[in-house]
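We examine the record.

___
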Amino acid sequence: MESIRPVFVFSLPRSGSTLLQRVLKTHSRIATTPEPWLLLPLLSMMREGVFADYNHSVARRAIADFQQRVGGGKEGFDEELRAFVLRLYRRAAGESATYFLDKTPRYHLIASDILDLFPSSRAVILWRNPLAIMASMIETWGNSEWNLYRYNVDFYRGLPALVDLAADERSNVFSVRYEDLVTRQEETLKQLCDHLDVAYEELDMRPPSLNGVVGDPSQDQYDSISAASLEKWRAVLTNPLRKRRARSYLNWLGSERLRIMGYSYEDLTRVINDSPLTLEYLGGDLIGALKSVVWPFGEYEIYKHKLQSSNDSMIHHG
């Protein structure tokens, strides 16, 4: 069976990656499935800071030692890992596709590692105005109240990692702005198809939904590429806390990172400063701000898991 070629879409959550994935899926040479998340555990096995029931620090050192004992060392290990993943991609894609598109938003954490493992792959970085991403996360996952402390890993680790990747100017990486995708769709998608070496004419601009265990819960709002969502963020980031946090994040990102992404620090700052000031959702946002102080000391799910393990142990030995 002919080997499959991977295509990776790297982005922050709420950047429009599911829309892009749905459109590309309509091409006869491109297969995909809802977010696989496959490479996160595989390429994180050698990383520090992973939570698990077992001692990950010991596992990481043991795997590093095993890696050196595999024939060919790290290169031999990576060759087997690459072959394993490609076989799974081929099985998921079927026999007729040339490409398998893996779109998993948190791949931004390991994007460079992914491209090092798959040097012949094609990759797309999908940018979106970070203030629009903030607003979309609040509306979609926060029940319209401040919840962005849950996504610090995306804003403060993921986005800078993608900027660094774009700055590397790898020949197999193509950058696309969500705003261009929805306002200049033909021109933008033709450029993307050229990058993938597929025919633009085969794309369907009214793509079917992708239904999986995880993925975009709002994808059914639009059955085709639409610019209707472009300005919604302005009505979300209007109270004093949201404006202050938005300005603070833009200052942290800085003009150079925003320039690489295709945005203007001055323009975004001006829009957030000039947008109407309201007190809407301020009470709930202040509670969210208090939660954000506690959040870095440990996620609730980790503590709950540890407590459950402790209870099970006491019941077993009682």
Q: What stands out?
A: The domain at 5-317 is CATH 3.40.50.300 (Rossmann fold). The chain is about 55% helix and 10% strand. Residues 240-261 form the longest helix (22 residues).
